[in-house]
Amino acid sequence: MTGAAARDTDPAVPAVGRAHPAVSAESRTDSAVPAAGPAHPAVSAAGRTDPAAPTESRTDPTAPPASPTDPRTEAVLAQLLARITEDRLRQAAHALTATPSPTGREAPLAHLIADRLTAAGFAATAQHLDAHQANAVGRLRGHGGGDDLMLYAPIDTLTTGDEGIDLPWIGERLRPDMLPRAEDDGPYVSGLGASNPKGHAACVLVLAEALGEVRPALVGDVVVAFGAGGMPTNAIEAPGHPARANTGHGVGCSFLLERGWHTDHAVIAKPGDFIAHEEVGLCWFEITVPGIHTYAGSRHRLPYRNPVVTAAEVVTRLELWLAGHPERHRTATAAPQGVIGSIAGGWERMPAVTPAACRIRLDLRIAPGTTPMAAKRELAAYTARLSAELGVELGLELILAIPGTSTPPDAPIVRTAVAAWERTAGAPHRAVPDNSGATDANILRSRGIPTARVGMPKVASKRFETDFARGMNTVDVRAMRRLCEVLARITLSTTATPPPA
After folding, report:
1. 375: left (phi over 0), alpha (psi -120 to 50) or beta
2. Please, which pLDDT band fits residue 22 given cuts at 50, 70 and 90?
Protein backbone atom coordinates (compact mmCIF):
# COMPACT_ATOMS: atom_id res chain seq x y z
CA MET A 1 0.00 0.00 0.00
CA THR A 2 1.33 3.41 -0.87
CA GLY A 3 1.65 6.27 1.59
CA ALA A 4 -1.12 8.17 -0.19
CA ALA A 5 -3.46 5.22 0.03
CA ALA A 6 -2.65 4.80 3.70
CA ARG A 7 -3.64 8.38 4.41
CA ASP A 8 -6.97 7.75 2.72
CA THR A 9 -7.79 4.53 4.58
CA ASP A 10 -6.14 4.64 8.00
CA PRO A 11 -8.51 6.40 10.43
CA ALA A 12 -5.61 7.00 12.81
CA VAL A 13 -3.86 9.18 10.23
CA PRO A 14 -5.11 12.77 10.02
CA ALA A 15 -5.24 14.42 6.64
CA VAL A 16 -2.97 17.35 5.84
CA GLY A 17 -4.30 20.51 7.41
CA ARG A 18 -6.11 18.86 10.29
CA ALA A 19 -5.13 19.34 13.91
CA HIS A 20 -1.69 18.23 15.02
CA PRO A 21 -1.75 15.08 17.18
CA ALA A 22 -2.18 15.38 20.90
CA VAL A 23 1.08 14.97 22.76
CA SER A 24 1.31 13.82 26.37
CA ALA A 25 4.31 12.75 28.43
CA GLU A 26 7.56 11.92 26.73
CA SER A 27 7.12 11.01 23.07
CA ARG A 28 3.57 9.69 23.39
CA THR A 29 0.95 10.71 20.88
CA ASP A 30 -2.75 10.13 20.30
CA SER A 31 -2.51 9.89 16.52
CA ALA A 32 -0.07 9.81 13.67
CA VAL A 33 1.64 12.98 12.52
CA PRO A 34 0.41 14.89 9.50
CA ALA A 35 2.77 16.01 6.79
CA ALA A 36 3.33 19.60 7.88
CA GLY A 37 1.98 22.80 9.31
CA PRO A 38 -1.26 21.99 11.22
CA ALA A 39 -2.44 23.37 14.52
CA HIS A 40 -1.21 21.95 17.82
CA PRO A 41 -3.58 20.43 20.39
CA ALA A 42 -4.91 22.30 23.38
CA VAL A 43 -2.74 21.76 26.44
CA SER A 44 -3.81 22.09 30.05
CA ALA A 45 -2.03 24.27 32.58
CA ALA A 46 -0.16 21.21 33.79
CA GLY A 47 1.12 20.63 30.27
CA ARG A 48 -1.02 17.60 29.49
CA THR A 49 -3.20 17.44 26.42
CA ASP A 50 -6.89 18.05 26.83
CA PRO A 51 -8.81 15.15 25.29
CA ALA A 52 -12.03 17.17 25.40
CA ALA A 53 -10.60 19.97 23.30
CA PRO A 54 -11.95 20.34 19.75
CA THR A 55 -9.91 18.84 16.95
CA GLU A 56 -9.76 22.07 14.94
CA SER A 57 -8.33 25.52 15.72
CA ARG A 58 -6.49 24.38 18.81
CA THR A 59 -4.03 27.25 19.02
CA ASP A 60 -4.12 29.51 22.05
CA PRO A 61 -5.62 32.85 20.96
CA THR A 62 -3.87 34.65 23.83
CA ALA A 63 -0.40 33.41 22.88
CA PRO A 64 1.88 35.66 20.81
CA PRO A 65 2.39 34.56 17.22
CA ALA A 66 5.62 32.90 16.20
CA SER A 67 8.35 35.39 15.41
CA PRO A 68 8.63 36.39 11.73
CA THR A 69 11.51 35.10 9.65
CA ASP A 70 13.53 36.74 6.91
CA PRO A 71 12.00 35.95 3.49
CA ARG A 72 15.46 35.20 2.10
CA THR A 73 15.98 32.61 4.83
CA GLU A 74 12.59 31.16 3.99
CA ALA A 75 13.69 30.88 0.36
CA VAL A 76 16.77 28.88 1.40
CA LEU A 77 14.58 26.77 3.66
CA ALA A 78 12.29 26.04 0.71
CA GLN A 79 15.28 24.84 -1.32
CA LEU A 80 16.28 22.48 1.49
CA LEU A 81 12.80 21.13 2.05
CA ALA A 82 12.31 20.55 -1.68
CA ARG A 83 15.15 18.02 -1.41
CA ILE A 84 13.92 16.42 1.81
CA THR A 85 11.13 14.31 0.40
CA GLU A 86 9.30 11.48 2.11
CA ASP A 87 10.76 9.04 -0.42
CA ARG A 88 14.27 10.18 0.38
CA LEU A 89 13.62 9.90 4.11
CA ARG A 90 12.14 6.44 3.62
CA GLN A 91 15.25 5.33 1.73
CA ALA A 92 17.52 6.67 4.47
CA ALA A 93 15.46 4.94 7.15
CA HIS A 94 15.80 1.70 5.17
CA ALA A 95 19.57 2.06 4.80
CA LEU A 96 20.19 2.75 8.47
CA THR A 97 17.74 0.15 9.78
CA ALA A 98 19.12 -2.59 7.51
CA THR A 99 22.65 -2.05 8.87
CA PRO A 100 22.84 -3.76 12.29
CA SER A 101 24.33 -1.58 15.03
CA PRO A 102 23.83 -3.08 18.49
CA THR A 103 25.66 -1.19 21.22
CA GLY A 104 29.38 -1.87 20.80
CA ARG A 105 29.18 -2.85 17.13
CA GLU A 106 28.25 0.39 15.37
CA ALA A 107 31.31 0.64 13.10
CA PRO A 108 29.68 -0.62 9.85
CA LEU A 109 26.84 1.89 10.20
CA ALA A 110 29.27 4.67 11.14
CA HIS A 111 31.22 4.02 7.92
CA LEU A 112 28.04 4.02 5.83
CA ILE A 113 27.03 7.41 7.27
CA ALA A 114 30.54 8.88 6.98
CA ASP A 115 30.69 7.87 3.30
CA ARG A 116 27.36 9.57 2.62
CA LEU A 117 28.49 12.72 4.42
CA THR A 118 31.70 12.80 2.41
CA ALA A 119 29.72 12.46 -0.81
CA ALA A 120 27.59 15.41 0.32
CA GLY A 121 30.65 17.64 0.69
CA PHE A 122 31.22 17.36 4.43
CA ALA A 123 34.66 16.82 5.92
CA ALA A 124 33.66 13.51 7.45
CA THR A 125 35.13 10.49 9.17
CA ALA A 126 34.23 7.30 10.98
CA GLN A 127 35.80 7.85 14.39
CA HIS A 128 36.76 4.50 15.91
CA LEU A 129 36.76 3.80 19.63
CA ASP A 130 38.01 0.27 18.89
CA ALA A 131 37.75 -2.22 16.04
CA HIS A 132 34.00 -2.70 16.56
CA GLN A 133 32.68 0.63 17.79
CA ALA A 134 32.74 3.96 15.95
CA ASN A 135 31.03 7.33 15.66
CA ALA A 136 30.36 9.12 12.38
CA VAL A 137 30.96 12.86 12.28
CA GLY A 138 31.21 15.52 9.59
CA ARG A 139 31.63 19.26 9.27
CA LEU A 140 30.25 21.70 6.70
CA ARG A 141 32.34 24.82 7.11
CA GLY A 142 30.96 28.32 7.23
CA HIS A 143 32.77 31.50 6.26
CA GLY A 144 33.73 32.20 9.88
CA GLY A 145 32.66 34.70 12.48
CA GLY A 146 29.49 32.90 13.52
CA ASP A 147 28.44 30.23 16.00
CA ASP A 148 28.96 26.53 15.27
CA LEU A 149 26.02 24.14 15.66
CA MET A 150 26.04 20.38 16.24
CA LEU A 151 23.12 18.24 15.10
CA TYR A 152 23.49 14.99 17.03
CA ALA A 153 21.83 11.57 16.99
CA PRO A 154 22.93 8.24 18.46
CA ILE A 155 22.98 5.17 16.20
CA ASP A 156 23.04 2.07 18.43
CA THR A 157 20.00 -0.12 19.07
CA LEU A 158 18.83 -1.14 22.54
CA THR A 159 18.45 -4.80 21.56
CA THR A 160 20.46 -6.77 19.02
CA GLY A 161 18.08 -8.68 16.75
CA ASP A 162 19.98 -11.84 17.71
CA GLU A 163 17.76 -14.56 19.20
CA GLY A 164 20.64 -15.95 21.23
CA ILE A 165 21.03 -12.62 23.02
CA ASP A 166 17.54 -11.08 23.08
CA LEU A 167 15.43 -14.15 23.92
CA PRO A 168 13.66 -14.88 26.18
CA TRP A 169 13.91 -11.48 27.84
CA ILE A 170 12.31 -9.50 25.00
CA GLY A 171 9.52 -12.06 24.55
CA GLU A 172 8.88 -15.54 23.25
CA ARG A 173 10.09 -14.67 19.75
CA LEU A 174 11.53 -11.84 17.70
CA ARG A 175 8.79 -10.07 15.77
CA PRO A 176 9.63 -8.64 12.33
CA ASP A 177 10.01 -5.14 13.81
CA MET A 178 12.66 -6.49 16.21
CA LEU A 179 14.96 -7.56 13.36
CA PRO A 180 17.53 -5.38 11.54
CA ARG A 181 15.68 -5.26 8.27
CA ALA A 182 13.31 -2.57 7.02
CA GLU A 183 9.73 -3.17 5.93
CA ASP A 184 7.21 -0.67 4.55
CA ASP A 185 3.57 -0.44 5.57
CA GLY A 186 2.00 2.64 4.02
CA PRO A 187 3.64 5.68 5.62
CA TYR A 188 5.48 3.54 8.17
CA VAL A 189 8.92 1.94 8.12
CA SER A 190 9.51 -0.84 10.64
CA GLY A 191 12.64 -2.65 11.74
CA LEU A 192 15.00 -2.74 14.69
CA GLY A 193 15.54 0.84 15.83
CA ALA A 194 13.69 2.30 12.83
CA SER A 195 12.39 5.14 14.98
CA ASN A 196 14.69 5.27 18.00
CA PRO A 197 17.38 6.00 17.16
CA LYS A 198 17.66 5.39 13.42
CA GLY A 199 14.67 7.35 12.16
CA HIS A 200 15.97 10.38 14.05
CA ALA A 201 19.50 9.80 12.75
CA ALA A 202 18.11 9.49 9.21
CA CYS A 203 16.53 12.94 9.56
CA VAL A 204 19.87 14.47 10.52
CA LEU A 205 21.61 12.63 7.67
CA VAL A 206 19.12 13.67 4.97
CA LEU A 207 19.18 17.28 6.18
CA ALA A 208 22.98 17.20 6.01
CA GLU A 209 22.85 15.91 2.45
CA ALA A 210 20.39 18.64 1.52
CA LEU A 211 22.69 21.27 3.06
CA GLY A 212 25.54 19.89 0.98
CA GLU A 213 23.47 20.21 -2.19
CA VAL A 214 22.07 23.70 -1.51
CA ARG A 215 25.24 25.11 0.09
CA PRO A 216 23.57 28.04 1.87
CA ALA A 217 25.76 30.91 3.01
CA LEU A 218 26.98 29.93 6.47
CA VAL A 219 28.89 32.04 8.96
CA GLY A 220 29.17 29.16 11.43
CA ASP A 221 30.03 25.52 10.89
CA VAL A 222 27.39 22.81 10.86
CA VAL A 223 28.65 19.64 12.56
CA VAL A 224 26.56 16.49 12.24
CA ALA A 225 27.45 13.74 14.68
CA PHE A 226 26.18 10.20 15.01
CA GLY A 227 27.21 8.68 18.31
CA ALA A 228 27.99 5.11 19.24
CA GLY A 229 27.03 3.77 22.64
CA GLY A 230 24.06 5.99 23.35
CA MET A 231 21.88 3.31 24.96
CA PRO A 232 21.69 2.64 28.72
CA THR A 233 23.60 -0.62 28.68
CA ASN A 234 26.88 -2.13 29.71
CA ALA A 235 28.82 -4.34 27.31
CA ILE A 236 26.99 -7.19 25.60
CA GLU A 237 28.58 -10.43 26.79
CA ALA A 238 28.67 -12.40 23.55
CA PRO A 239 31.28 -13.46 20.99
CA GLY A 240 32.32 -10.68 18.62
CA HIS A 241 31.39 -7.86 20.98
CA PRO A 242 33.91 -5.59 22.74
CA ALA A 243 35.18 -6.92 26.05
CA ARG A 244 35.38 -3.51 27.74
CA ALA A 245 32.46 -2.64 29.99
CA ASN A 246 31.98 0.96 28.83
CA THR A 247 30.31 0.52 25.45
CA GLY A 248 27.08 2.36 26.33
CA HIS A 249 25.90 5.30 28.42
CA GLY A 250 27.13 7.96 25.98
CA VAL A 251 30.67 6.63 25.52
CA GLY A 252 30.71 7.62 21.83
CA CYS A 253 29.48 11.13 22.56
CA SER A 254 32.08 11.55 25.28
CA PHE A 255 34.85 10.31 22.98
CA LEU A 256 33.69 12.65 20.23
CA LEU A 257 33.97 15.68 22.51
CA GLU A 258 37.30 14.56 23.95
CA ARG A 259 38.67 14.57 20.41
CA GLY A 260 37.78 18.21 19.87
CA TRP A 261 34.40 18.10 18.13
CA HIS A 262 33.00 20.94 20.24
CA THR A 263 30.46 23.49 19.04
CA ASP A 264 28.76 26.54 20.53
CA HIS A 265 25.34 24.89 20.55
CA ALA A 266 23.86 21.44 20.00
CA VAL A 267 20.52 19.87 19.15
CA ILE A 268 19.94 16.19 19.81
CA ALA A 269 17.29 14.32 17.82
CA LYS A 270 15.55 11.85 20.10
CA PRO A 271 11.88 10.93 20.63
CA GLY A 272 9.48 13.59 21.86
CA ASP A 273 7.54 16.08 19.73
CA PHE A 274 8.53 19.09 21.79
CA ILE A 275 11.59 21.10 22.75
CA ALA A 276 13.28 19.93 25.94
CA HIS A 277 15.92 22.00 27.69
CA GLU A 278 16.61 19.50 30.47
CA GLU A 279 16.31 15.84 31.25
CA VAL A 280 16.79 13.37 34.04
CA GLY A 281 19.96 11.50 34.82
CA LEU A 282 20.20 7.94 36.03
CA CYS A 283 21.79 5.92 38.79
CA TRP A 284 22.14 2.16 38.83
CA PHE A 285 22.22 0.40 42.17
CA GLU A 286 22.95 -3.15 43.22
CA ILE A 287 21.29 -4.47 46.36
CA THR A 288 22.75 -7.67 47.83
CA VAL A 289 20.44 -9.95 49.78
CA PRO A 290 22.39 -12.34 52.05
CA GLY A 291 21.41 -15.92 52.84
CA ILE A 292 22.83 -19.34 53.60
CA HIS A 293 24.15 -21.81 51.06
CA THR A 294 22.61 -25.19 51.78
CA TYR A 295 21.03 -28.27 50.22
CA ALA A 296 17.40 -29.27 49.75
CA GLY A 297 17.96 -32.59 51.49
CA SER A 298 19.35 -30.81 54.55
CA ARG A 299 16.81 -27.99 54.87
CA HIS A 300 15.26 -29.55 57.99
CA ARG A 301 18.62 -30.35 59.64
CA LEU A 302 20.77 -27.23 59.03
CA PRO A 303 20.34 -23.47 59.43
CA TYR A 304 18.15 -22.21 56.61
CA ARG A 305 17.80 -18.70 55.15
CA ASN A 306 17.03 -18.71 51.45
CA PRO A 307 18.03 -15.34 49.89
CA VAL A 308 15.78 -16.05 46.91
CA VAL A 309 12.77 -15.95 49.22
CA THR A 310 14.03 -12.87 51.05
CA ALA A 311 14.73 -11.14 47.72
CA ALA A 312 11.08 -11.61 46.75
CA GLU A 313 10.03 -9.59 49.79
CA VAL A 314 12.71 -6.97 49.14
CA VAL A 315 11.58 -6.56 45.54
CA THR A 316 7.93 -6.21 46.56
CA ARG A 317 8.73 -3.50 49.12
CA LEU A 318 11.19 -1.78 46.82
CA GLU A 319 8.66 -1.59 43.98
CA LEU A 320 6.29 0.35 46.25
CA TRP A 321 9.09 2.75 47.19
CA LEU A 322 9.95 3.27 43.53
CA ALA A 323 6.31 4.01 42.70
CA GLY A 324 6.46 6.99 45.08
CA HIS A 325 9.79 8.27 43.76
CA PRO A 326 8.37 10.55 41.01
CA GLU A 327 6.20 12.51 43.41
CA ARG A 328 9.12 13.03 45.76
CA HIS A 329 11.30 14.47 42.98
CA ARG A 330 8.95 15.95 40.39
CA THR A 331 10.00 19.11 38.54
CA ALA A 332 8.14 21.24 35.99
CA THR A 333 9.11 18.86 33.16
CA ALA A 334 10.47 15.72 34.85
CA ALA A 335 8.89 12.87 36.79
CA PRO A 336 11.93 10.63 37.35
CA GLN A 337 10.98 6.97 37.48
CA GLY A 338 12.69 3.82 38.67
CA VAL A 339 12.50 0.13 37.77
CA ILE A 340 13.94 -3.13 39.01
CA GLY A 341 15.57 -4.59 35.91
CA SER A 342 17.50 -7.63 37.05
CA ILE A 343 17.61 -10.33 39.73
CA ALA A 344 20.47 -12.83 39.89
CA GLY A 345 21.00 -15.64 42.36
CA GLY A 346 21.74 -19.31 42.40
CA TRP A 347 22.82 -21.86 39.83
CA GLU A 348 20.25 -22.41 37.09
CA ARG A 349 21.90 -25.77 36.47
CA MET A 350 21.51 -26.82 40.12
CA PRO A 351 18.29 -25.74 41.84
CA ALA A 352 18.87 -28.37 44.54
CA VAL A 353 20.99 -25.86 46.48
CA THR A 354 20.39 -22.35 47.73
CA PRO A 355 22.87 -19.52 47.06
CA ALA A 356 24.60 -17.49 49.73
CA ALA A 357 23.35 -14.24 48.15
CA CYS A 358 21.02 -12.74 45.56
CA ARG A 359 21.67 -9.52 43.64
CA ILE A 360 18.98 -7.04 42.66
CA ARG A 361 19.79 -4.30 40.15
CA LEU A 362 17.66 -1.23 39.57
CA ASP A 363 17.66 1.95 37.50
CA LEU A 364 16.71 5.08 39.47
CA ARG A 365 16.20 8.24 37.43
CA ILE A 366 17.25 11.50 39.09
CA ALA A 367 16.00 15.00 38.36
CA PRO A 368 18.38 17.73 37.19
CA GLY A 369 19.98 19.16 40.32
CA THR A 370 19.83 15.90 42.27
CA THR A 371 23.29 14.44 42.77
CA PRO A 372 23.99 10.71 42.56
CA MET A 373 25.16 10.77 46.17
CA ALA A 374 21.90 12.35 47.31
CA ALA A 375 20.03 9.57 45.51
CA LYS A 376 22.29 6.97 47.10
CA ARG A 377 21.70 8.32 50.60
CA GLU A 378 17.94 8.35 50.08
CA LEU A 379 17.91 4.75 48.90
CA ALA A 380 20.37 3.73 51.63
CA ALA A 381 18.04 5.14 54.29
CA TYR A 382 15.20 3.06 52.89
CA THR A 383 17.22 -0.15 52.64
CA ALA A 384 18.43 0.36 56.22
CA ARG A 385 14.82 0.45 57.42
CA LEU A 386 14.03 -2.55 55.25
CA SER A 387 16.99 -4.45 56.70
CA ALA A 388 15.71 -3.87 60.22
CA GLU A 389 12.19 -4.97 59.32
CA LEU A 390 13.32 -8.16 57.55
CA GLY A 391 16.14 -9.05 59.93
CA VAL A 392 18.84 -9.11 57.24
CA GLU A 393 21.77 -6.86 56.38
CA LEU A 394 21.13 -5.67 52.85
CA GLY A 395 24.12 -4.41 50.91
CA LEU A 396 23.87 -1.37 48.62
CA GLU A 397 26.31 -0.15 45.96
CA LEU A 398 26.07 2.63 43.40
CA ILE A 399 27.36 0.98 40.22
CA LEU A 400 26.67 3.68 37.61
CA ALA A 401 25.86 7.37 37.71
CA ILE A 402 25.03 9.96 35.04
CA PRO A 403 23.66 13.20 36.51
CA GLY A 404 20.70 14.96 34.95
CA THR A 405 21.41 18.24 33.19
CA SER A 406 19.69 21.43 32.16
CA THR A 407 20.24 24.24 29.68
CA PRO A 408 18.67 27.55 30.74
CA PRO A 409 15.31 27.91 28.99
CA ASP A 410 16.29 31.38 27.81
CA ALA A 411 19.54 30.12 26.22
CA PRO A 412 19.82 31.05 22.52
CA ILE A 413 19.65 27.44 21.31
CA VAL A 414 16.49 26.74 23.31
CA ARG A 415 14.76 29.93 22.17
CA THR A 416 15.79 29.22 18.57
CA ALA A 417 14.53 25.64 18.78
CA VAL A 418 11.20 26.71 20.26
CA ALA A 419 10.75 29.34 17.52
CA ALA A 420 11.58 26.72 14.86
CA TRP A 421 9.10 24.27 16.35
CA GLU A 422 6.40 26.97 16.45
CA ARG A 423 7.02 28.03 12.86
CA THR A 424 6.75 24.41 11.74
CA ALA A 425 3.69 23.58 13.85
CA GLY A 426 1.96 26.91 13.33
CA ALA A 427 1.14 26.99 17.04
CA PRO A 428 2.68 28.03 20.35
CA HIS A 429 5.00 25.55 22.00
CA ARG A 430 4.11 24.21 25.42
CA ALA A 431 6.48 22.35 27.72
CA VAL A 432 5.53 18.69 28.21
CA PRO A 433 5.72 17.35 31.78
CA ASP A 434 6.46 13.94 33.31
CA ASN A 435 9.54 13.11 31.24
CA SER A 436 11.90 10.41 32.48
CA GLY A 437 14.06 9.56 29.47
CA ALA A 438 17.81 10.16 29.52
CA THR A 439 19.92 10.69 26.39
CA ASP A 440 23.36 11.83 25.28
CA ALA A 441 22.12 15.38 25.82
CA ASN A 442 23.38 14.84 29.36
CA ILE A 443 26.88 14.20 28.00
CA LEU A 444 26.77 17.26 25.74
CA ARG A 445 25.55 19.58 28.49
CA SER A 446 27.95 18.20 31.09
CA ARG A 447 30.81 19.09 28.72
CA GLY A 448 29.60 22.67 28.51
CA ILE A 449 27.57 22.67 25.26
CA PRO A 450 24.10 24.25 25.61
CA THR A 451 21.76 21.63 24.17
CA ALA A 452 18.11 21.38 23.15
CA ARG A 453 16.29 18.17 22.35
CA VAL A 454 13.59 17.63 19.74
CA GLY A 455 12.16 14.60 18.00
CA MET A 456 9.16 12.71 16.75
CA PRO A 457 6.20 11.30 18.64
CA LYS A 458 5.84 7.57 18.90
CA VAL A 459 3.72 6.12 16.14
CA ALA A 460 0.08 5.37 16.78
CA SER A 461 -2.15 3.63 14.29
CA LYS A 462 -5.03 1.19 14.13
CA ARG A 463 -2.77 -0.95 11.97
CA PHE A 464 -0.82 -2.18 15.01
CA GLU A 465 -0.50 -1.99 18.78
CA THR A 466 2.26 0.37 19.88
CA ASP A 467 4.02 -1.35 22.76
CA PHE A 468 7.48 -0.25 23.90
CA ALA A 469 9.34 -2.20 21.21
CA ARG A 470 7.02 -1.09 18.39
CA GLY A 471 7.48 2.52 19.47
CA MET A 472 11.24 2.07 19.13
CA ASN A 473 11.03 0.13 15.89
CA THR A 474 8.49 1.93 13.70
CA VAL A 475 8.72 5.42 12.21
CA ASP A 476 6.28 7.53 10.21
CA VAL A 477 8.00 9.21 7.24
CA ARG A 478 5.60 12.15 7.51
CA ALA A 479 6.81 12.77 11.05
CA MET A 480 10.38 12.55 9.76
CA ARG A 481 9.64 15.26 7.21
CA ARG A 482 8.26 17.52 9.91
CA LEU A 483 11.27 16.95 12.19
CA CYS A 484 13.58 17.81 9.30
CA GLU A 485 11.82 21.15 8.91
CA VAL A 486 12.34 21.94 12.61
CA LEU A 487 16.02 20.98 12.38
CA ALA A 488 16.50 22.96 9.16
CA ARG A 489 14.98 26.08 10.70
CA ILE A 490 17.23 25.75 13.75
CA THR A 491 20.27 25.28 11.53
CA LEU A 492 19.61 28.31 9.35
CA SER A 493 18.74 30.51 12.32
CA THR A 494 21.95 29.54 14.13
CA THR A 495 24.59 29.34 11.41
CA ALA A 496 23.38 30.96 8.18
CA THR A 497 23.28 34.48 6.83
CA PRO A 498 20.68 35.37 4.21
CA PRO A 499 22.16 35.86 0.75
CA PRO A 500 22.12 39.39 -0.68
CA ALA A 501 18.72 40.54 -1.92
Report:
1. alpha
2. very low
